[in-house]
Design brief:
With about 350 residues, the chain is an alpha/beta fold. A hairpin with a 5-residue loop joins strand 22 and strand 23. The chain has two domains: about 90 residues, MurE/MurF, N-terminal domain (Udp-n-acetylmuramoylalanyl-d-glutamate--2,6- Diaminopimelate Ligase, Chain: A, domain 1, 3-Layer(aba) Sandwich); about 210 residues, UDP N-Acetylglucosamine Acyltransferase, domain 1 (3 Solenoid). The chain contains five helices and 40 strands. A twelve-stranded mixed β-sheet has the order 8-11-14-17-20-25-28-31-34-37-39-40. The mean pLDDT is about 95.
Length: about 350
């Protein structure tokens, strides 16, 4: 799909400086721009590339002043970075604007479907499923019985939703994510064998939740595992049964959260963080990557380490830790001197 500079200016409320009829069909970095591509300049350190780029159109701030000759058509906007982000979003919407039902699919006769749907080939939609308007279900998605999916949500290829799962409006579930699998519940008997504890609850994703590829969220033993409104989960995260995550919390890849832990709102959690079970994590907590969290955390704390503790104390302690061989050497020398005396 091609767009002219004047069409893009209309989308971004910008001003064209150069050839308003020039067309682009792809996006590029400014240093890699080729004819037919669109790029942007937001960081001043990339300014030299503006004079050499072969991109057909470059988005710049209205305040930008060129100091050399250039060949690209400029599109002047209030904020080049925000405008390019807006254009990416628009481009993504156009690219994903699929509709209709492909064949073959299985849709239970008891399912309730909204309008303007896209259902890709080999999708499975079970009994008593309710799907809202403008939902996109890509090929090979599995939706179990009694699942509810809110309007505008997107399920990418290979996502699996077990029975009773509730997905809010405008959620995104990426490929390979598994929502609602059994929690890790086993009980030992007198022979030392482990018997499975039935997991009879479900998973609830509130509105505007994003789930990364290959992330797994287990159903509750009783009640619900709850992912709050606006939560963003990266790829390959494990969330165990009965976990609750508050609104607008962001969690990076390979984090694992054990059962019944409750995490507050507006938290930022780095990659490979491990949480013990049955903890309470406050609001606005910051947890650095690879931390091991084994205690309750109060609101507004920033922590690091394994076991984790206050970030400032960790940084000071690390200075001493990395100098430990030198300190031991000095200590041994001092001890030897005292003994010799």
């Amino acid at each position: 799909m091609k767009f002219t500079a004047s069409q893009i200016a209309g989308i971004l409320e910008g001003e064209v400086e150069g050839d308003a009829s020039i067309e682009v069909s792809k996006l590029a970095k400014i240093e890699e721009g080729l004819p037919g591509s669109l790029t942007f300049l937001a960081n001043p350190k990339y300014t030299p590339y503006l004079y050499t780029t072969k991109a057909s159109i470059t988005i710049v701030d209205k305040t930008f002043v060129a100091e050399q000759q250039y060949t690209t058509t400029l599109l002047r906007v209030d904020d080049a970075y925000k405008s390019f982000s807006k254009l990416l979003e628009y481009y993504n919407q156009v690219k994903m604007n699929k509709s209709g039902v492909e064949e073959p699919v299985f849709i239970s006769k008891s399912a309730t479907l909204g309008t303007d749907l896209y259902i890709g080939a080999f999708a499975y939609i079970g009994d008593n499923v309710t799907i809202g308007d403008n939902v996109k279900i890509y090929p090979n998605v599995y939706i179990g019985d009694n699942v509810t999916i809110g309007e505008g949500s997107v399920l990418f290829s290979g996502a699996k939703l077990y029975s009773e799962t509730v997905v809010g409006a405008h959620c995104v579930i990426n490929s390979g994510a598994i929502i609602g699998a059994d929690g890790f519940g086993f009980s030992p008997n007198e022979k030392g064998e482990f018997t499975k504890v039935p997991q009879t609850g479900n998973v609830i994703l509130e509105d505007y939740v994003d789930i990364g590829a290959a992330t797994t969220i287990d159903r509750a033993t009783l009640g619900s595992t709850i992912i709050g409104r606006g939560v963003k989960l990266d790829n390959q995260i494990q969330i165990a049964h009965n976990v609750e995550i508050g609104q607008n919390t962001v969690i990076a890849a390979q984090t694992g959260i054990a059962g019944s832990t409750k995490i507050g709102s507006q938290c930022l959690i780095g990659g490979q963080v491990g949480f013990a079970g049955h903890l309470t994590i406050g609001n606005n907590v910051r947890i650095q990557a690879q931390s091991g969290v084994g205690r309750n955390i109060k609101d507004n704390e920033t922590i690091q380490g394994s076991p984790s503790f206050n970030y400032g104390d960790f940084s000071k302690s690390y200075v001493h830790f990395k100098n430990l061989p030198k300190i031991i050497k000095r200590f041994d020398a001092l001890e030897k001197k005292i003994n010799d005396e």
